[in-house]
Amino acid sequence: MATIFEKIIAGELPATILHRDERVVAFTDIHPVAPTHILIVPRKVIETVDDIADEDEALLGHMIIVARDLARQQGIAKDGYRLIFNCRTHGGQEVYHLHLHLIGGRVLGRMVHRD
Ligand code: 5GP
To answer: What is the CA radius of gyration of the chain?
Structure first.
């Protein structure tokens, strides 16, 4: 069954698209946790980080380059930002279509809260 992200990529669900090319689509997160919260999503269906194949190495690099460029376009590159991949249950992954979160525009604090 197609995930929400596949439907956005196919144009079947609306989203604020900030970048699209032959390999990835990037759009704003529907529930942003910071002033800038963008998802960089490969067109190729890869469910989780654990499902990335060796042959996807260039695709993953491309996702980070797109994130870098979007951060510059959004004006958050100088102050800095965070890139996150959540993987499966312990990682807090909700949508099982690989995506890179680009989050910034405010001080984000600790990476993971200590219990
Ligand atoms: P995950 O927890 O899987 O790493 O992140 C999934 C992200 O997708 C969440 O931050 C969530 O807010 C976002 N999201 C879920 N459904 C939609 C949607 O329909 N549209 C958009 N733009 N983002 C969504």
So the answer is: 14
